Amino acid sequence: xxxxxxxxxxxxxxELADQDGAVHRLADYAGRTVVLYxxxxxxxxxxxxxxxxxxxxxxxIQAEGAVVLGVxxxxxxSHRSFIAKHxxxxxxxxxxxxxxxxxxxxxxxxxxxxxxxxxxxxxTFVIGPDGALTKVWKRAKAAEHGQAVxxxxxxxx
Length: 157
Hints:
Strand 1 and strand 2 form a beta hairpin. The protein is of the alpha/beta class. The chain is built from five helices and nine strands. It is globular. The protein is 29% helix and 27% strand.
């Protein structure tokens, strides 16, 4: 049975390394707002639009007191290349076995061009300073995602 998290639920803990090997734990961000976004693959059209939309809103997102963490199953080398190519200004975490994605319900069946497959979905979770989810996108829209995240941080919706 797939995991379904909703606003008000406690965010599952995680511990993942980023593109440089630094370990990030949800507990490290206690008292801060975390935007944890899951995406299918580095440097693909939709994922690039999504990452760049977050990059472009980063100053405003940080002004709201939030940190952004991207998560995919790509390896650290792929993440480093993606960050460098698009001048991303936030860490990308390696979830090689999709364990964290599975706990968040961001791994499962998806349909692309009429074909069903199992993989990472484009899901985002805003985790409040107390560890509770304040906003959940089960299917984020890539190109406008930075603005949508900023709106949620500002309005709580």
